[in-house]
């Protein structure tokens, strides 16, 4: 189970590393206490690698992502913080409740946070998630079952969902 940390409790010094995933380079940024972002980059080349100076939480996230892409990790345990409004934080928390290899709709999330009319706002919050994969916004689909927007590109969303189906056992 992931550990969410309050933004106020996180120091400002950060450590950054890039991870070469099967679907592109992912930049991981974290403080000594928590991961603050996991985002796909436009680069085809890893420019920032693990060093002795890389914060341990960033190394742990790197390793957990590697396990995820190798099909051996289904839940993330690294501490993270995700800055946003209370509504957005509620949406992001609800996303973490979607089990590995399963999907939910924007409406499902709106209902789960007690605001069934906020479907569009849920979509906006989903798009503002800076913790790709560990807050699984890729598991959100349209009410009709179709793939909908993903900041990393729909092709990545499709790949991630297929990857989770492959390793769901």
Short description:
The protein has helices at residues 56-69, 86-95, 106-112, 119-127, 154-166; strands at residues 3-4, 15-21, 24-30, 35-40, 79-80, 104-105, 140-141.
Main sheet: strands, sense, barrel = 3 strands, antiparallel
| N- and C-termini, Cα separation | 18 Å
Q: Give me the strand/helix succession.
A: EEEEHEHEHHEH
Strands, count: 7
List the helices and strands and how they pair.
Blueprint: E1 3-4, E2 15-21, E3 24-30, E4 35-40, H1 56-69, E5 79-80, H2 86-95, E6 104-105, H3 106-112, H4 119-127, E7 140-141, H5 154-166
Parallel strand pairs: 1-5, 6-7
Antiparallel strand pairs: 2-3, 3-4
Structure description:
- The chain is of the alpha/beta class and 169 residues long.
- It is 31% helix and 17% strand.
- The strands form 3 sheets. It has a 3-stranded antiparallel sheet with strand order 2-3-4, with helices on one face. Strands 1-5 form a two-stranded parallel ribbon. The chain has a two-stranded parallel ribbon with strand order 6-7.
- Helix 3 crosses helix 4.
- The two termini are 18 Å apart.
